[in-house]
Write a structure and sequence with these properties.
The protein is α/β, with parallel strands linked by helices. It contains 15 helices and 13 strands. The two termini are 17 Å apart.
Length: 364
């Protein structure tokens, strides 16, 4: 099969990470796997793909990913593939429109339980039409699937759930870094959050929690994005410049997670919570916002806190650090939970979807 993965960019985030990891593995199953990123700026995820021999196409660097002219360029590419698999809004919509101009089998992955466009009543008919053009819609969690069905009122078997996965061994067997290469205070307890600086994420609650934590606690925020200036202002407003470090986008996430004490995933919403699984696989206790998608991954292994409750979050962090028996129990439960989300299971399920779509096309 010839399969094209389409996304707006390969900057940072769960969808970008998913593409960078599963595409080479699907190629190893005998498929021609190519990637199109509308914005082809050089990133760690793009390098990971090209280093493994995956061809990455783009429509420019630093370009407007919502440029409607991309529809025609995308349609021209799509006709060369058996399946076009899209991720995130612009790619989903442009491929749907492009399919009117050429015959192609479309598949998409829904990465979030919700998004802001679902609040736009005027946009709902467009969104529902878009999904109707897809032969398969893959959701990354049960709650993501249920919310999508509730939105588009779609009950057919074209919608399914394939849980996200990671290379568990890559995190469990990672080697810790020397903290002194990151911080001037390597003796401090380190709390970390890996997430893009986007509206969906809630770094501010975690930052405010440090007002209720001892001075020898430090926060590492790993990621970047359009809300960086807002996060920087939050750090200044809370006078935490000496205790909150912005590490930017990193390619050594497994080693960083091995080096910290606690991993936090604070989000307004999540489709799944891949970063939480990464923290679990690194053998760390994970604390997460009690929101759909993320709660499904963490509950019963890590610890959930009420969305936006910085004081409760601080209390949980302190309890983990101060009670080592409890710390080890939660860490062990998290490691066991991570094993449920091994990437090979996800790749096998995606491959099964692709084979089913091609058979469906051949029989039509």
């Amino acid at each position: 099969m010839k399969i094209l993965q389409v996304i707006t960019s390969l900057s940072t985030g769960g969808a970008e990470k998913l593409i960078s990891e599963i595409t080479p593995m699907l190629r190893d199953k005998g498929h021609q796997m190519d990637v199109l990123a509308f914005d082809g700026a050089d990133t760690a995820f793009k390098k990971a793909l090209t280093d493994k021999g995956i061809k990455v196409y783009s429509f420019g660097k630093g370009c407007n990913v919502y440029n409607p002219l991309f529809i025609f360029r995308l349609a021209k590419m799509m006709k060369n593939y058996d399946i076009v698999h899209t991720h995130n809004t612009a790619a989903q919509l442009f491929a749907a429109v492009g399919s009117v101009l050429c015959s192609v089998v479309l598949c998409t992955t829904e990465h979030n339980t919700s998004n802001r466009r679902r609040d736009w009543k005027w946009y709902a008919p467009i969104d529902k039409w878009m999904y109707s053009k897809y032969s398969k819609v893959i959701c990354i969690s049960d709650s993501t699937e249920q919310n999508l069905r509730d939105f588009i009122k779609e009950g057919s078997d074209k919608i399914c759930t394939i849980l996200n996965g990671i290379d568990v061994k890559r995190y469990s067997q990672a080697v810790s870094i020397d903290k002194s290469t990151i911080t001037n205070h390597p003796e401090r307890k380190v709390i970390a959050m890996v997430a893009g600086f986007r509206y969906q994420k809630d770094q501010e609650t975690l930052i405010r929690a440090f007002n209720n934590l001892p001075e020898d606690y430090e926060l590492w925020l790993i990621g970047d994005g359009e809300r960086r200036s807002i996060i920087e202002q939050c750090i200044k407003d809370n006078k935490l410049e000496d205790r909150v470090l912005l590490l930017g986008i990193r390619s050594d996430i497994p080693s960083l997670l091995k080096s910290v004490d606690v991993v936090v995933q604070s989000s307004h919403w999540e489709g799944f919570g891949l970063a939480a699984v990464e923290g679990m696989a690194a053998g760390k206790p994970v604390i997460a916002s009690d929101v759909e998608g993320l709660a499904q991954v963490v509950e019963g292994a890590g610890i959930l806190f009420p969305l936006g409750d910085d004081k409760k979050l601080a209390d949980i962090i302190k309890l983990l650090i101060e009670d080592q028996t409890y710390y080890q129990l939660v860490a062990a439960n998290c490691m066991e939970r991570a094993k449920m989300f091994d990437i090979q299971k996800m790749v096998d399920a995606y491959n099964e979807v692709y084979e089913g779509l091609v058979k469906q096309k051949d029989n039509s």
